[in-house]
Write a structure and sequence with these properties.
Order of helices and strands: HEEEEEEEEE
Number of helices: 1
Strand content: 35-45%
Number of domains: 1
Number of strands: 9
Oligomer: single chain
Distance between the termini: 29 Å
Shape: globular
Mean pLDDT: 79
Largest sheet: 5 strands, antiparallel
Length: 195
């Protein structure tokens, strides 16, 4: 089932409006200065964040909007804005909650964390390996964000809360910021019938 078909199916089952502008959709949220912790919760706190730190004001989409998530992207930055390995490459797991349902449970993310090793999704096999010959350049960045391609589409229906949880054991996330971005396809509210 294609992303568009799946989104239409879920919207119809929930009685959500089927009209709207189809678009590529990226939802992102930032946690400032998380320090060393065993738990991160993205898309739960928006107070004090700027437009560059999140593009939402609540952990649900508007009544006329919905999205299908294809990729989850995680990054960790120092207070100087330098990209680091997410959680230092330590063992971590990711869970996705949509409403009261856990749709992804304890997915290990360290295999896609931008350091030596083979990506378990096989699509990013060489995305972040460390054995780069010579100094890192714009074409050869030593540290890559963690990118997880979903094999099954995750649908975020309108007006349903969602959250991304990261679990680990005393993981060093630093004093900069950690970012989670959800990328895929969506529908946004469109007041007009033509453009």
């Amino acid at each position: 089932m294609s992303q568009i078909s799946k989104l239409n199916y879920v919207d119809n089952k929930l009685g959500a409006p089927s009209q709207g502008q189809q678009t590529t959709r990226i939802l992102f949220n930032t946690i400032e200065a998380p320090g060393t912790t065993s738990h991160l919760s993205f898309f739960t706190s928006f107070q004090g964040l700027t437009n560059g730190q999140t593009n939402l004001v609540q952990n649900r989409l508007d009544s006329m909007e919905s999205a299908v998530i294809k990729t989850i992207w995680l990054a960790q930055y120092t207070s100087n804005g330098i990209l680091e390995r997410f959680g230092g490459g330590q063992q971590q797991s990711l869970s996705v909650l949509i409403g009261n349902q856990q749709v992804v449970k304890d997915l290990p993310i360290q295999f896609n964390a931008g350091f030596s090793g083979q990506a378990f999704d096989r699509l990013h096999d060489n995305a972040g390996i460390e054995f780069i010959v010579g100094a890192p350049t714009a074409e050869k960045q030593l540290v890559q964000p963690t990118e997880i391609r979903m094999l099954t589409d995750i649908v975020i229906p309108p007006q349903v809360s969602f959250e991304i949880r990261i679990q680990g054991l005393n993981v060093p996330y630093g004093t900069g910021a950690v970012v989670c971005a959800l990328s895929g396809y969506g529908k946004i509210f469109s007041a007009g019938n033509t453009f």
